[in-house]
Amino acid sequence: MVATVLHSGVVNALGADIVSGRIPVGTALTLEGIQERFDVSRTVAREGMRILEAMHLVTSERRHGIVVQPPESWHVFDRRVIRWRLDSEHRPAQLRSLTELRIGIEPFAAHLAAARATEDEKDALRQAAGEMRVFGEAGRLDRYLAADIAFHRTVLRASHNEMYVALIEPVIEAVSERPLHGHSHAYPVPAAMDLHEAVMLAIADGDGAAAEAAMLGILSDVRSGIGAALHADDVTAG
Amino acid sequence: MVATVLHSGVVNALGADIVSGRIPVGTALTLEGIQERFDVSRTVAREGMRILEAMHLVTSERRHGIVVQPPESWHVFDRRVIRWRLDSEHRPAQLRSLTELRIGIEPFAAHLAAARATEDEKDALRQAAGEMRVFGEAGRLDRYLAADIAFHRTVLRASHNEMYVALIEPVIEAVSERPLHGHSHAYPVPAAMDLHEAVMLAIADGDGAAAEAAMLGILSDVRSGIGAALHADDVTAG
DNA sequence: TCAGGTAAAAGGTAGCACCTTTGATCGCTC
DNA sequence: GAGCGATCAAAGGTGCTACCTTTTACCTGA
To answer: Is B136 part of a structural domain of the chain?
Structure first.
């Protein structure tokens, strides 16, 4: 928490506290309280609050103080909000949300990639799929996972849609954590390698429908893993 | 642009300028320049910059000033960034991105909704689907569109995934603009009403696969509308 | 070519005036 | 005496000014 700039220390600490629920919704902070807690000047406290306000974690009103907002209004795609939730006890809920998001967007991202991938991106996909095969068969799990991550990252980038691109980090987070999501069978399976190869070939071939279908195949076991949580009652964030 | 708080005026003006490209990437602003342009104090200028910095529209470095960042680093899901892009000459590109996002997320949102919708949400879907039928057959286009919007909004909300919920406004924006996306045939068609009804019934019935399939049907003509733009070269944001 | 000086610009501090909202107190009426 | 409106003080964010500190790009000169 060594802050090159002071306000980022304030933001990180308070943001994590709010997102984790340690500071409950509705709590009214004051600038003076923040100044004292972090031993900073009013300016620093105010700039920190502006940042949290931009994330919709708090609102600031005269006479009312700085009021912690409910999760519904948070900017849940903000990198820092995601990070804070992953670092809190809400990590499982955050990973579930991310995985569901991934299930939604990856198939059509593959479709778009088939239409828009550059030669460089196609090369990167070929290499990633190849490495998954090689390291998967060799039992090199770490390298296999790295190739897997590179593959999915490249597909999203190759969609050339800035919103899909913006979701790369969150999706990668979900990909990396896959084993935690009820995905019980041994991790590198031949079927997965085949499917990644199919996605790669379809994208290289410009066949959007095939790329989408193959990506759906990759996600099918993630979907069944999520299935158990589908009727979960505690799906509200916070 | 009447700003109850001064810094929001600064943020809105500069944000729109940056996002539209009127202030090119790499431009270095200074606090002093901002103070003069908007006739505000240093405090206000700094707080405004903190907000733009939180959106990753600018970075602020000593000696360099406040440097405008490239579109890749923007927080493209920030409501204000989307709004500014929609209000700029990049509106078509933004709508295309949003429509592609919608195509990705709505089917699985329907799937999730089938598992998680509350009774109230199911009621809202029934009502929206019913109104689409009634107003569609009566030729009341405005009411038909309103019901359509309510329907899609409710499906996303019923997914009970905060990330899908956070995408409601952007998706609605795309839904409202559908006619602009090469969607050429007359707007309220019986097939659309049938499909919305099918989604509603599947969700009410808890049948995720059916809900997803029906939603894919709703999106099929949006997808064909996008098809023309699939190989567009100017897909980079900014 | 490298060392050191210089200055630009953000980072940070301090403190004041002001505005809005809240809520308590006071006084008037019935 | 009870209720109701007016007034006033305090809280706390908003905004401004002034000034010092720190970083670092860039220039100068050996």
So the answer is: yes
Does residue A66 sit in helix, strand or coil?
strand
pLDDT in tens, chain B (238 residues): 455 789 999 999 999 999 999 999 999 999 999 999 999 999 999 999 999 999 999 999 999 999 999 999 999 999 999 999 999 999 999 999 999 999 999 999 999 999 999 999 999 999 999 999 999 999 888 899 999 999 999 999 999 999 999 999 988 988 887 655 444 444 678 899 999 999 999 999 999 999 999 999 999 988 887 765 555 444 443 3
Q: Has residue A83 been placed in a domain?
A: no
Q: How far apart are CA A14 and CA A48, in angstroms?
A: 9
Domain count, chain A: 2
CATH number of the domain enclosing A48: 1.10.10.10
B166 closest CB neighbour out of A76, A231, A236: A76
3-state SS string for B119-134:
HHHHHHHHHHHHHHHH
Residues B54 and B100 in one domain: no
Task: Give the list of residues 6+ apart from residue A51 with CB closer than 8 angstroms, or none.
Answer: A7, A11, B50, B51, B53, B54
A217: in domain = yes
Q: Do A51 and B55 touch (CB under 8 A)?
A: no
Positions of chain D reached by protein Cβ under 7 A: 10-19, 22-25
Residues of B in contact with A4 (CB under 8 A): none
Residue labelled with tokens 């990590």: A91
Nearest CA in chain A to B96: A161
Which structural domain, as residue segments, surrounds residue B218?
90-227
CA of A28 to C1' of D7 (A): 28
Helix or strand run (H / E) with residue B59:
strand B58-61
Residues B104 and B176 in one domain: yes
